[in-house]
């Protein structure tokens, strides 16, 4: 059993748990962290997707009451021909509408996009995403007439968020940042934009994970790989639970430009190091 490999997997899971729900790109950080510690290969590509599902499980646990109630009301609306469950049905349709754009783009271009999951692409995503986050926050965050309740979201607003979520397909852009920016543009308060981004992450990540698991060759799995996968899933789940609670509290008090500045500075620093050949990201 390769203890060093398991420890590397543990480290990547911690990185995922910390970065999945804050607007800095979990995929980008995992790619860079994996490059730094020599954690790569076909298993790693599948591993990084599966532990993201562990992070998504944290959403299900923290917001279980809302999810359970909405599912019950969604089907109640259908079976009572619209007499009951309108709130849950509307919420469910909003989530579906928000998921359609990234679902279509993922089906059409997933393999091509995944081939771009390299450190150089992450650097571009860090800088471009950070600058975009600064611009959108300054333009839309403080506008009046904000939607504050998740049950008041309109179909047009949910589609707006869904269209912005497509940006997350570029490594380093960040799904969280993309959907929160979509929420600002749609007229959400910042806490609502973050909360809604948690919910629409569920179908997006389940779809991505399902596709990767179906295509993965499980014949290569060894005890070391199974232990790494299970451990990583659990660690990502636990760390994400903690970070989500802290992030929501942070957003109620402070702007997100600190994350944007971090992204731009990190991207520029990495770009300088690469261009001056101090580090070499690809073999």
Automatic annotation (TrEMBL):
The protein's role, per its UniProt record: Catalyzes the dephosphorylation of undecaprenyl diphosphate (UPP). Confers resistance to bacitracin.
Principal place of residence: membrane
Regions annotated as coiled coil: none
NCBIfam families referenced in this protein's UniProt entry, alphabetically: PRK00281.1-4 (NF001390)
Keywords: Antibiotic resistance, Cell membrane, Cell shape, Cell wall biogenesis/degradation, Hydrolase, Membrane, Peptidoglycan synthesis, Transmembrane, Transmembrane helix
Stored HAMAP family: Undec_diphosphatase
Protein name: Undecaprenyl-diphosphatase
Gene Ontology annotations of biological process type: cell wall organization; peptidoglycan biosynthetic process; regulation of cell shape; response to antibiotic
GO molecular function: undecaprenyl-diphosphatase activity
InterPro entries for the chain: UppP
Family: Belongs to the UppP family.
Catalyzed reactions per annotation: di-trans,octa-cis-undecaprenyl diphosphate + H2O = di-trans,octa-cis-undecaprenyl phosphate + phosphate + H(+)
Pfam families the record matches: BacA
Keyword ATP-binding part of the UniProt annotation: no
EC number: 3.6.1.27
Stretches that traverse the bilayer: 49-67, 88-110, 122-140, 183-206, 226-248, 260-279
Topological relation to the membrane, as annotated: Multi-pass membrane protein
Compartments where found: Cell membrane
Additional remarks: Bacitracin is thought to be involved in the inhibition of peptidoglycan synthesis by sequestering undecaprenyl diphosphate, thereby reducing the pool of lipid carrier available.
GO CC terms, sorted: plasma membrane
């Amino acid at each position: 059993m390769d203890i060093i490999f398991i420890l590397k997997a543990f480290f990547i899971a911690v990185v995922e748990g910390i970065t999945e729900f804050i607007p800095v790109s979990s995929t980008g950080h995992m790619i860079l962290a994996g490059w730094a510690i020599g954690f790569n290969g076909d298993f790693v590509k599948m591993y990084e997707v599966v532990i993201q599902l562990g992070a998504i499980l944290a959403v299900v646990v923290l917001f279980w009451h809302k999810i359970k109630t909405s599912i019950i009301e969604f089907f109640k609306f259908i079976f009572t021909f619209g007499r009951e469950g309108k709130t849950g049905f509307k919420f469910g349709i909003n989530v579906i509408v928000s998921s359609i754009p990234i679902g279509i783009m993922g089906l059409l271009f997933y393999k091509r996009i995944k081939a771009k999951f390299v450190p150089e692409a992450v650097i571009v995503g860090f800088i471009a995403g950070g600058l975009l986050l600064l611009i959108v926050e300054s333009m839309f965050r403080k506008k009046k007439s904000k939607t504050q309740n998740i049950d008041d979201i309109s179909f047009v607003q949910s589609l707006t968020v869904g269209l912005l979520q497509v940006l997350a397909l570029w490594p380093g852009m960040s799904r969280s940042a993309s959907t929160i920016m979509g929420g600002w543009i749609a007229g959400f308060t910042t806490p609502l934009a973050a909360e809604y981004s948690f919910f629409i992450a569920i179908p997006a990540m389940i779809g991505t994970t399902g596709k990767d698991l179906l295509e993965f060759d499980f014949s290569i799995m060894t005890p070391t790989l199974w232990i790494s996968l299970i451990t990583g899933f659990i660690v990502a789940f636990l760390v994400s639970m903690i970070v989500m609670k802290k992030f929501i509290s942070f957003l109620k008090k402070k702007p997100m430009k600190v994350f944007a500045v971090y992204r731009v500075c990190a991207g520029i620093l990495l770009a300088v190091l690469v261009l001056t050949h101090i580090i070499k990201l690809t073999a």
